[in-house]
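Example: Box C/D snoRNA protein 1.
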Amino acid sequence: CETCSKEEAKYRCPRCMKYSCSLLCVKKHKLALSCNGVRDKTAFVAVNEFTDLNLLSDYRFLEDVGRTADAAARHPIVHSPTTKKLLYGLRNKARRCNIDLRTLPIGFTKRRENSTTFNCMEKKFYWHLKLVFPHSHAEYTLKRVPDDKTLADILKPYIDPVESDPVVCQRLKIYTMSPQSDVQILMKIENRKHNSTRYNELDAGRSLLDNLKGKVIIEYPTLFVVLKTLKNDMVVLGQ
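Written out as structure tokens, the predicted fold is:
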């Protein structure tokens, strides 16, 4: 058992492949790793490891996607002129800021949860933003983040030793104990092959808007906060 290291393992998590010996250890591992226990149907599989079971899984996955897409196409909001106008306006405003903002069809989770708006009076975006801290297996969702706020200020309530929330600080202890110079902020580059994932490194001293310029955003930005001294699988563009 990879949780208690005492008993013989009986179960294996379909998502993270961790071995567990009991229901209690299964629950503990889900809590510690923020794991939902559901198999990742879109995980990359090398050609030499591809089996008939993978083929069947992909076929069923595509059937599910077809049903979901068909149900979404029938949704009344899809045909609403107001919805189309709002999305067109949002993409158009982003384009003027040199941001390639793309929206997903109704039915996708990111489309449903996205709360990004543009304030015409202030002439700035208020972004829906997701922060992911891989070394602590934690992620947080922020709403109405002004585009003129620097990334350093956005991260202060999370990893600043003085200003961060005590509960959050405890969970992100590995970040708060590290020097600020060791913190690296990355954002995934969209429209690349699954086995060629690359990340852009963002500047913590610049505003969110400046960091998003010239990039493709699908619904809303997701920022990965990593530590340079700790090993991770994220490859920065150019490395």
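Helices lie at 23-33, 52-73, 81-96, 109-113, 151-159, 166-171, 173-176, 208-212.
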